[in-house]
Design brief:
The structure holds 2 protein chains of 2 kinds. By secondary structure, chain A is mostly beta strands. Chain A has strands at 3-5, 9-13, 18-25, 32-37, 44-49, 53-57, 60-65, 70-75, 84-91, 97-99, 103-108. In chain A, the strands form 2 sheets. In chain A, strands 2, 4, 5, 9, 10 and 11 form a 6-stranded mixed sheet that branches. In chain A, strands 1-3-8-7-6 form a 5-stranded antiparallel sheet, with no helix packed on it. The radius of gyration of chain A is 13 Å and the shape is globular. Chain B is built from no helices and 11 strands. In chain B, the strands form 2 sheets. In chain B, strands 2, 4, 5, 6, 9, 10 and 11 form a 7-stranded mixed sheet that branches. Chain B has a 4-stranded antiparallel sheet with strand order 1-3-8-7, with no helix packed on it. In chain B, a hairpin with a 6-residue loop joins β4 (31-37) and β5 (44-49). The model of chain B has no long low-confidence stretch (mean pLDDT 95). Classes of the chains: A mainly beta, B mainly beta. Chain A binds chain B through residues 4, 30-31, 33, 41-45, 48, 87, 89, 91, 95-102, and chain B through 35, 40-45, 48, 58, 90, 97-98, 100-106.
């Protein structure tokens, strides 16, 4: 079967750094996406990795290791507005996205 | 219109009733998708369309049907709603299956 695992919830302090991990087992791999979803809103695209390594985009970075079936999203200089759920999704051999249940990130002052 | 719109925003429906959720995009994206999101579960694909005139089944298609008569519109129909179809439904689109998906604001559906 196909499986995406993420922690259910994480807590971090404003101004700090947090790493959200994602491990996956899917039928084929054609890229990994991270999305942000604020409560009651739609998911919005954050990052995309298809090759191993780190992709940096401002305060957010995403890392991929295909051999380990592992990715992480790194958020730096946390702001209160970063309180949201972060969704990991893998594009499988059929080019469909398989989604993790999401990690709810709580930022405390 | 800018991006993707969905209607209605929310709906309470009696079991057994027929319901169509509407989705329209103005980005001229070829691919469109319908997902449901339930607490504690990831987004699950119901149906998709890679281009106008074609549709395909996702992970949880039973009880749902779709059509794609043109590029912009991708309605989702529940022929006879059941309480287990209570969920938040998101429509999404992408310029191709290789690219990121853009999501509509969602429809919160309650079936009683």
């Amino acid at each position: 079967g196909q499986n995406i695992d993420q922690p259910t919830e994480m807590t971090a302090t404003e101004g700090a750094i947090v790493q959200i991990n994602c491990t996956y087992q899917t039928s084929g791999f054609n890229g990994l996406f991270w999305y942000q979803q604020h409560a009651g809103e739609a998911p919005t695209f954050l990052s995309y990795n298809v090759l191993d390594g780190l992709e940096e985009k401002g305060r957010f970075s995403s890392f991929l290791s295909r051999s380990k079936g592992y990715s992480y999203l790194l958020l730096k200089e946390l702001q209160m507005k970063d309180s949201a759920s972060y969704l990991c999704a893998v594009r499988d051999s059929n080019y469909q996205l398989i989604w993790g249940a999401g990690t709810k990130l709580i930022i405390k002052p | 219109i800018a991006g993707i719109t969905q209607a209605p925003t929310s709906q309470i429906l009696a079991a057994g009733r027929r319901m169509t959720l509407r989705c329209t995009q103005d980005m001229r994206h070829n691919a469109m998708y319908w997902y449901r999101q339930d607490l504690g579960l990831g987004l699950r694909l119901i149906h998709y369309s890679n281009t106008a005139g074609t549709t395909g089944k996702g992970e949880v298609p039973d009880g749902y049907s779709v059509s794609r008569a043109n590029t912009d519109d991708f309605p989702l129909t529940l022929a006879s709603a059941v309480p287990s179809q209570t969920s938040v439904y998101f429509c999404a689109s992408s310029s191709g299956s290789y690219n990121e998906q853009f999501f509509g604001p969602g429809t919160r559906l309650t079936v009683l």
